[in-house]
Amino acid sequence: MLTATTTKKARELEEILNLQELNLVQNISPMEMQTQGFVTMHHTLKILQQMHDLAPSIIIKDDEQVVAYALTMLRECRSLVAGLEPMFHMFEQLRWKDKPLNNYSFYVMGQICIDKKYRGKGLFDLLYQKHKETYQSQFDFIVTEVATRNNRSLRAHERVGFERIHTYRDELDEWVVVVWDW
Questions:
Q1: pTM for this model (two decimals)
Q2: How far apart, in whole angstroms, are the C-alpha atoms of residue 75 and residue 6?
Q3: Helix 45-54 vs helix 10-23: angle between axes, to the nearest 10 degrees?
Q4: What are the residues facing 47 on neighbouring strands?
């Protein structure tokens, strides 16, 4: 049985890392990257634990196995992953609805991934609905960036309700910044 919940155990964080490793851009074929999407950033157990201590991430479990995750990354996490510092700095420059983005209460979707056997079953939407249910009373919205070449992820984010607000390029890729206004 599939259940959406927050991370509670160290074992769940380890299972997130296993799923992440299988879907990192450098570990999949170009065809799979184009058709199935990919994740870019590699985390460590220590980083995931620090993120979890600030705000638990959302996972979907099939019985006891994590089969999908959507990482909750508060702005306080910006120093945990060096590769994300440019993103957080860029967020400080952005405006949304005629206000600086930093004037809002938001958090970042740190990464989202679904086990290959579970794709196409509505889990992406379920992850985000659980995020909204869990964090809507504390935040105005979620913001994230998606690589422009990750068409599957861009389409899925727009389907959920994310709105494109900015596009930029850094040393890793070209990115679209998206906001899901609750």
A1: 0.91
A2: 19
A3: 120
A4: none
Report the pLDDT value the prediction gives residue 136, as an integer from 0 to 100. 96
| The CA-based dihedral angle spanning residues 163, 168, 172, 176, taken in that order and rounded to the nearest 10 degrees | 10
**Sequence-distant (≥ 6) Cβ neighbours of residue 67 within 8 angstroms:** 2, 19, 60, 61, 114, 115, 117, 118, 123
What does the DSSP 8-state code read for residue 12?
Answer: H
Sign of CA dihedral 136, 139, 141, 145: negative
For residues 79 and 18, give the distance between their C-alpha atoms in angstroms, rounded to a whole number: 23
The SS3 of residue 106 is strand
pLDDT for residue 177:
96
Q: b/e string for 84-114 if b means 16 or more Cβ within 10 A?
A: beebbebbeeeebeeeebeeeebbbbbbbbb
Q: Provide block-wise average pLDDT over 10 residues at a time, the chain (182 residues).
A: 95 96 81 74 91 96 96 92 84 95 95 93 96 97 92 92 94 91 92
Cβ contacts of 149 within 8 Å, gap of 6 or more: 33, 34, 173, 174
pLDDT of residue 34: 75
Classified by CATH at the fold level, domain 2-181 comes out as: Aminopeptidase (3.40.630)
Report the alpha-carbon distance of residue 87 to residue 104 in Å, rounded: 16
